[in-house]
Amino acid sequence: MHETAVVEGLMRILTEHAKQNGVDRVVAVKLKIGRLRGIDSRQIRLAFEIFAEGTLAEGARLDIDDVGVTAKCRTCSTVFEVEKYHFVCSGCGGSDADVLTGRELYIESFEAAKT
To bridge 90 with a disulfide, which of 33, 80, 103, 111 should be the other Cys (CB 3.0-4.6 Å)? Predict the structure, then answer.
């Protein structure tokens, strides 16, 4: 389950940034996760709850922005949404495209509090 590894990394980053900024508690975290990552948001939430227990992020709200897949056709330059991992241009029907969104995996922001 790679969701566990993702949350371990998330907790490491939050802890480092909190220490650097004199933060005592993380109140909320906003993640961006692209659909091409194949990550289950429910598993992320569960792992976050478990890993946050007893840390500065315990009880923090976790917001996940699920980013859809878009691509740009190399033939006609049409930007299109990729549905069900079917990379077919809506402009020309071609399948030679560059992925624009859907690979994201990062902390967009987090709210913190000092006590």
Answer: 80
